[in-house]
Amino acid sequence: MPDAPRADAQRNRARILDVASTAFRENPDISLNQIGKLAGVGAGTLYRHFPTREALLLAVYATEIDALEAAVDGLLAEEAPLDAFRSWSRQLAELVRLKHGLGEALATPSAQAMIDATYAPVTRAIGRLLDAAVAHGDIGPGADPGDILLLLSALWRVPSGPGGLVQADRLLEMVVASLPAADGRG
């Protein structure tokens, strides 16, 4: 059994991921060396953890998907279920819009395999949000999380900028309106 990474190695990896997440959002073309400098680690440390740009991008994306799935409980504790669904959907759209903005960097077979692996956590999160809305009496049962994810994909296809955000909110309201009615008539 391999030894667990040292505590400092774990901290370095976490710091690199945190810095890279922000850096890629601000500048998708940022170099790995620039990320290393921002994270306060040397090139050797950076490349030991992430030997390629693709490896770092994929690790950032996977970490963000995990955080998005974990955010469901907090959103449901703070907001009514349909509002939590709206908030979560906006976060998903922002994350996927970033991924689409990275284009060719995520167009490899290994990247596609990792992106495909995010389907289950995302649909699981959608299912939990929908179940909470059903339990709250906001919607009726029967909405398929995979279908809802497909509808939500319109949110990350809108143009960037304020006009795109307004359009995304209109589309999100159409998705919410398409959910089964609580009284069974929808």
UniProtKB/TrEMBL annotation:
<dbReference type="InterPro" id="IPR036271">
    <property type="entry name" value="Tet_transcr_reg_TetR-rel_C_sf"/>
</dbReference>
<protein>
    <submittedName>
        <fullName>AcrR family transcriptional regulator</fullName>
    </submittedName>
</protein>
<dbReference type="InterPro" id="IPR050109">
    <property type="entry name" value="HTH-type_TetR-like_transc_reg"/>
</dbReference>
<dbReference type="InterPro" id="IPR049445">
    <property type="entry name" value="TetR_SbtR-like_C"/>
</dbReference>
<feature type="DNA-binding region" description="H-T-H motif">
    <location>
        <begin position="31"/>
        <end position="50"/>
    </location>
</feature>
<dbReference type="GO" id="GO:0000976">
    <property type="term" value="F:transcription cis-regulatory region binding"/>
</dbReference>
<keyword id="KW-0804">Transcription</keyword>
<feature type="domain" description="HTH tetR-type">
    <location>
        <begin position="10"/>
        <end position="68"/>
    </location>
</feature>
<dbReference type="Pfam" id="PF21597">
    <property type="entry name" value="TetR_C_43"/>
</dbReference>
<dbReference type="GO" id="GO:0003700">
    <property type="term" value="F:DNA-binding transcription factor activity"/>
</dbReference>
<dbReference type="InterPro" id="IPR001647">
    <property type="entry name" value="HTH_TetR"/>
</dbReference>
<dbReference type="Pfam" id="PF00440">
    <property type="entry name" value="TetR_N"/>
</dbReference>
<keyword id="KW-0238">DNA-binding</keyword>
<keyword id="KW-0805">Transcription regulation</keyword>
<dbReference type="InterPro" id="IPR009057">
    <property type="entry name" value="Homeodomain-like_sf"/>
</dbReference>
